[in-house]
Amino acid sequence: MDGELKSGCPRWLAGLVSAVVALALGCARQTWKKEDVMTWEGCCKGADACLALLQEVHGPDTGEQWLSPEQSCAAWKLGREGEDVVPRLIPLLRHADRRVRGGAAQALAKMEEKATDALPALIEAYAREPGGMALHALASLDDERAAPAIVRYLLESPTSALAHLGPTLAPVLLDVLENPESSWEELVLVRHVLSRRASMYTETFVPRLRALLARELEEPTLRRSPGTACPSAPAPGCEAVFDACTPRAAYVASVLAAYGRQGAKAAPEALQALQRADVRLTPVALQALVAFGSPAAVPGVLEQLAVPECRARALASLVSLGDVARPVATEPLLRLLATGEEGWERARAAEALGRVGDAAALEALRQAVYAPHSEVQAAAVDALGSYAFHTHAEELVPLLQRVVTTHASPVARSHARLALEGLAEQEVRHAESIDCTCIIPGRSGGWTLCEGHTSLHLHWEKPKAPPRGSPCAAVPGGDSASVLEAMGEACLVGWDDGEFGGTLEVHEAGRVTVLEEPRANPLRVVRMHGALVVVEGLAHMYGGAGRLVRVDASEGRWRATPWVTLPGAPMAYALDDAGDLVVGTTNQRLDAVVCGRAGTFAPAHVVRVTGDGRLASVEPDGRP
């Protein structure tokens, strides 16, 4: 990857390789530029200059939610000023230009408790413009006086602000969930927000949610949103669907499921919900039991495994359940590994076998390392390296060493390297690694590297505001989505929260289908060979991870298929002349990125994915 490109290589590949190498190696920081959000220190100096920059607007207002880099920088600098700047920001909340109003609110949000005197003005600004930036400042202040306004304007509020309500204001979302008069739209919105913030306020929220679920299940007839009607019994499915037929108990169970093992005390209520045999409640209750790691989920998951339309969901559930499903899941998984029609089915069966950890699967997994399909090979290596098989290290190490040095699949080599590191507790170098002495987050190829306290994750630019009339135009939370893709009359929506996961949903008129939650990092949608594919990925801690998820519909029901595993976090992509997807990835370590540790290896790959889900490395001249 770090060698010279051969003459005559495809132009798209040269650009892709350049983007991958530039991102893997990083780039030096320069003086502040208007388009550069990484170095805001130099954009303005002093309150007067920053207030002037905040009020600079160029061209007509396009309706974009996010401020320009200049205004964002000015707001950030003003947020670091003292309380004396607050009286100068308050009048700007009534400025004629929406962008200036938003900048003033953003500056007050960054001031936090220093902006307390602006609270009445912010509540008035929120009432005038619920979809603006005022709620972000109110969330930052976290004052109970804002609670009535939040309830009143809930459906018009940006979910990115609702998701950041503090401990004083956040309980108003539970109030909405408990209110029997809450509409379907309100329940859908609150479910989404509470599920995305499930790591917060566990000690107080989980008991309250559990009690609410128990009350809903006490009803002889499950309650639904007022004013809605379910004209006929919907067809059974395995995905969580929220529409007029969905009982209120399903919204509560879905939020509890987002707490994972921390919500496990609600397993008895989730089992009771499963036993109600309601078409809309059953898949949500089963997903909650899976999230809790409850053995009670295993029979239902195995029933799903036997249904082709539910197989992807069932395999993901078995991966999550792990040894809880041992030994009853071993035989059906081995059968699927041997006879599955598609490569992804056999691959995900191998992955699940690794998590289940039954030694009876070892021989089949060893043989699958050199199966005909690249995805199966990589998944088998990953399974053999799982912690459940560490007691068999003596017999597995020689095989993993051969994979690292000779295997054709870059994903298999990456998995084998990580497995050997786990067994030997030392770093194993890639033969194709780029030796970096200093790695600094940079920007190239349309990707921005977003640096956080504990992770480095890769984001595409936020989607542009969809045009009026688009099925994506009215999606709640579209302002903070990483993916917004129209699919006929439906909209595919993804939110990526870095190491905290994310979600992938399909929004239609009167219905929301949750395809992935919370283990998702959707970044970009690509259409290849007639299929709609979501690029997902994250670079975090000891390396990067990425995958391609195929989204399709069958008999009116949407599903997401975990199609291809990538050798690291995706950074750039292209479609070649044959319509195949070519992706650039990196698997660099977080400590190398943050600390610039000398001698660290940051493997970068360019791989081609064909229409049948096979993956192969691409040479610099464009050949597989």
**Average pLDDT number:** 83
Number of helices, where a helix is a run of at least 4 consecutive DSSP H or I residues: 24
Distance between the termini: 14 Å
Helix content: 25-40%
Weakly predicted, low-confidence segments: 1-9, 21-38, 430-460, 590-601
Strand percent estimate: 15-25%
Report the sheet with the most strands, covering strand number, pairing sense and barrel closure.
7 strands, antiparallel
Q: Which class of secondary structure composition applies to the elements?
A: alpha+beta
Number of strands: 18
Estimated radius of gyration: 25 Å
What general form does the structure show? Answer: globular
InterPro entries: ARM-like, ARM-type_fold, PBS_lyase_HEAT
Protein name: HEAT repeat domain-containing protein
Organism: Myxococcus virescens
Pfam families: HEAT_2
